[in-house]
Structures are given as C-alpha cells and as structure tokens.
Amino acid sequence: MPTQRVFSGIQPSGIPQLGNYLGAIRHWVRLQSDYSCLFCLVDMHAITVWQNPEELRHHTLTQAAVLLASGIDAQKHILFNQSAVFAHARLGWIFNCITRLGWLNRMTQFKDKTGKDRENYSSGLYVYPNLMAADILAYKATHVPVGEDQKQHLELTNDIAQKFNHDYSVAFFPQVKPLIPPTAARIMSLRDGTKKMSKSDPSSQSRIDLTDDADTIRLKIRRAKTDTAPLPDHSNDLTERPEAKNLVSIYAALTNTTIDHVLETYQGKGFSVFKEDLTEVVINAIVPIGQEAIRLLKNETYLLEILRNGADRASTLANPVVSEVEKIVGFLS
Ligand code: TYM
Predict the structure, then answer these.
(1) List of domains in the chain
(2) Where are the alpha helices (DSSP H) in 75-196?
(3) Phi-psi region of 169 (alpha: psi -120 to 50; beta: other; left: phi over 0)
(4) Which residues, judged by CB distance below 6 Å to any ligand atom, belong to the binding site of ligand 1?
(5) Of 217, 207, 235, whose CA–CA distance to 16 is shortest?
(6) Could you report the per-residue pLDDT of 272-297, keeping only the tens digit for each?
(7) What are the two backbone dihedrals, phi and then psi, of residue 109, each rounded to the nearest 5 degrees?
(8) What radius of gyration do the chain's Cα atoms show?
C-alpha cells in the first residue's frame, strides 16, 4: 500500500486564531497517530499580500510555537517553513503552466479577497492555488486536513494532478482526499456572523487569537455580537441567526458534541448565561496553548533549529519527486 501521507499548511500572516484551531490545527494533532505528517508554515503564500518583513518573521516563529504548544510532534513528524524547501517553487512554476486561466477565474477565495479592486492585487495571489497544489503534490500527499474554505483549492489540486498525468501520459500524481471536520469547519467573525474569522481581519475583536490571555478572551466574548432572542431548542432555528449559531458551534466543537446537544442544555436561556459558560470552555482550551507558545517563543534558537531540521527532512522527501517531474516534463537533469 502506498504511504498514507498528510500535508497541511497555515499562512504566517498573523497569529493563529480559534478558527484555525478548530478547523485545522486540532485535527492535525489527532492525525499524527495514524499518518506520517508534514505541517508547513506557508510564508511564500503569505507574501501574496503585503507583509511587513519583521512581522512576517515574528508570525512565522509564533505559528511554529503555537503548533508545538498544541501538540504537533516535530520529531516524529515534519514542521517547516515553505520558503526553506525550494521544491515548492520549482513545482509551483510547472503547475502555473498546467492550470488553465478559466480554472483560476472560478476560485471564490480570490474573488472574495479582491472584490472590485482585482487589478491592484498581486499576480501571486491569483496563482496561489497552483502553489498550494505544489505544496501537497511535491510530497505526493494523500490526505489534506483543512477548514471548509480550502475545499475548492483541493478540488483544483486534483484537477491539476489529473491534467498533468493526462498531458504527459503518466500515472504520477495521486488524487488527494480533503479531510474537513463535520463541526466548526467554518468559524465566523465575532463581530459579523456572515464573515469568516480570520487572522488578517483588521479588527482584533473579530477573533480569538491562540495567544490571548483569559481577560482578553473574556472581553472579546462579552463583546461578541448576538441577538436578543433566547437560545432555541433546535439547530434549524439558528439558520437565520448567524452570530448565535457561530457561538453555539464553537461551544459544541470545544466540548466535542453537537449543536443540538448544546441547545438541549441552553434552550430558553439568554446570552449572558451562555456567554459566561462559553468563556470558560474557550479559556480552558486556549489559554494553556497560548502560555506554552509564549514560553517557547523566548527560545528563538530552538524554534529555528526545529524548522531547519524539518526543512531538511522535507527536502529529502520532495526533491526526488520534483526532479522526477522535471524529467517527465523534459528538463535536462
Ligand atoms: P489559512 O492560513 O487561511 O488557514 C489555515 C487552516 O485553518 C483553516 N481555517 C479555518 N477553519 C475554520 N474556520 C475558520 N474561520 C478558519 N480560518 C482558517 C483553513 O481552512 C486552513 O485549513 N491556503 C491555506 C494554506 C495552505 C495549505 C496548503 C493548506 C497553503 N498550502 C496545502 C493545505 C495544504 C490557507 O490560506 O490557510
């Protein structure tokens, strides 16, 4: 049986937030017992929109610290930053030449990010999904755990793999399987239940950062937007109440239960009671991770060493794959 390999990535464009944790990171931690895994801090993706260089460096180290603090095992598995492994850029370019413009024009994330101002965004942001496909396929990864917002990019990855195999008459790249969690696959902003929670949102009140302390979390949840009605007894009655649904989803995800089960306890109650309990649940899950991450961040040399070691091991896996691709394409070796 071929290796069952997990690959996933996170952009160091800010401090990881609760959505990253519930949609991705905590599943990465669990998958470590069944798969051989690579976790990548995708700094090359981050610069598709402007990043202050000092902040990019700081956020990359912070993300490494948060992942380790969450339970990523960098000895058994591989944790590294993308730009340190040249194979990603080499394969990314080849995929730029495989993907059709029509495919990229359908990417909803690009449309959402750029809105009416498309002409002013970088060409890197436009071809971003090709680099993402390269990240995964440079390792011939088979499983990719992500939040729901990445689903379309993974479908594109499979289209690219298939077109490459077809154009060069090879059976080289596998099809990848997205692993999307059944609950909390899309955590929304605390200020606007129709917008995704995001580490790059200008309002820090819209999200819970994984390094927030208990008081900050308390304040953010107290200020989180809600409505005036009490909680209903069934999840169907939350469809028109995005902010309420979001908070209940967070509670359900962190207590490993369903939205309906949470509503059994809180039906008829108002948000003051629910928010207080939610605050405790969030603090218990997040604060120990944040504290450990802050402790690890004090030892930059240690973090750099882990990432360097990860990049060496990742290169050993990816280089032969990408060299083989270059041979298939007809590059001199
Ligand atoms: P990024 O950095 O936006 O997010 C990292 C992971 O967190 C998930 N996520 C969320 N899940 C639930 N609710 C939210 N509000 C939320 N926000 C983010 C994302 O789905 C993701 O799983 N393009 C990717 C990074 C990437 C990648 C890859 C992922 C680059 N190459 C290869 C997988 C495989 C991104 O921007 O993630």
Answers:
(1) 5-179+300-329 (3.40.50.620), 204-295 (1.10.240.10)
(2) 87-96, 101-105, 108-114, 123-137, 151-167
(3) left
(4) 7-11, 19-20, 22-24, 42, 45, 132, 135-136, 144, 146-147, 149-150, 185-187, 196-197
(5) 207
(6) 999 999 999 999 999 999 999 999 99
(7) -65, -40
(8) 21
